[in-house]
Amino acid sequence: MWVISQGWGAAIEWVSLHVVGPCLAVFGLGNAFGNPAEVAEAVIITLLQLVMISLVFRPLESLFPAERWENRRLTTIDRNYTLLMLLGLFPLFSYLVLTPVAHLLGGESATLAAVNDGPTWGLTHWVPWFEHHPYVAFAVYYVVYDLAYYWMHRAQHAIPWWWALHSMHHSQRQMSCWSNDRTAYLDGVLQSFVLASVALVMGVEPAQFAWLVLLSELVQNFSHANVRLRIGQRLGKVLVGPAFHRLHHMVRDPDRPTFHNCNFGQVLSIWDRVFGTARYGEPVHPTGVSDPIVDADNGKGLISLQWYVLKRFWAAFRSPAGWRPGDVHFGGPGFAPIADDADTVPAGLPASPPVNSSARPPLTPSSTRPANSAVAGADSDAATR
Length: 385
Ligand SMILES: [Zn+2]
Ligand SMILES: [Zn+2]
Prior knowledge:
Layout: H1 2-26, H2 36-63, H3 75-104, H4 123-126, H5 134-158, H6 160-170, H7 185-202, H8 206-224, H9 233-236, H10 242-248, H11 270-274, H12 292-295, H13 302-317, E1 328-329, E2 338-339, H14 374-377
Antiparallel strand pairs: 1-2
The structure holds zinc ion (2 copies).
Transmembrane segments: 12-33, 39-60, 81-98, 135-152, 184-203
Organism: Pigmentiphaga aceris
Subcellular location: Endomembrane system
């Protein structure tokens, strides 16, 4: 860990001195974007994520696909969302919101050499022992952060107005290594608010928060990838892998209408095991949603999709049914939510996953293989609980 920390510090310093500083000087921006070291760290994190997605996860999708697609037409919008998020929106959000808030609250600069007088609240304030064991403290932050994410994610599915937003992430029928950043922007703001609040209460410093986000994002990029790779039974009981998260994205099964409410974990799968929502040992299911209103997301462009999602969010937010926990579909007037019957697929929804519809890109038989298929049965991260 010491070597990683030293290497990370050296990389930030090098990029800051040889790339960020000269670039800012050329454009006459000086310190307009804050400390060059903070900018350098953001640049490195962005590049690392893009390199991992495009040079590791994407080739793995071609080599070991979970679903075989004739083309990747529907993945294009997710790739564009990822590029827009990493190269535009996230740096802008960090610059305009995160950094000023962190500095306002007395957080440490991302410069590793910065002097810290010690926090006045948070984990290291409550238990000073952690001050001398920063890696253990980081592990504790990570576990709490991940637990907070688990319950937030449960809420995104249970509260209909939040599902109106989060369902956009689920509507993708070709889930790939680019799908993690397929998010309604209002949902992204809500998520950032919840997770940053948890981090601030714990006293996580900005540089540590960047690491929390980077590690979480990389695991999530991999867990969304269309790969038939197992991470092993033992590891699968602790960590979220591609098969585990793919089940979370499964199209609703008409024979098991509540079966899709599973595997909410972000990085650690232990929360699903502890709270009884873990599922393993299933074959590859097609991904997407069975609600035609949400499924229509797939035909929309970058901007119109955000607008369409906001319309169904607003319809849910102003309706009493939008506040009653439970599965809904948005077939009411003006996209108003209607509660689903707990035991049956609601009238008007497709009786089975629309894998052969003209709108859905064709899938090979491997992706629709029955549950008892030998190959499909081998697709879980941990075959048993
Ligand atoms: Zn979800
Ligand atoms: Zn997902």
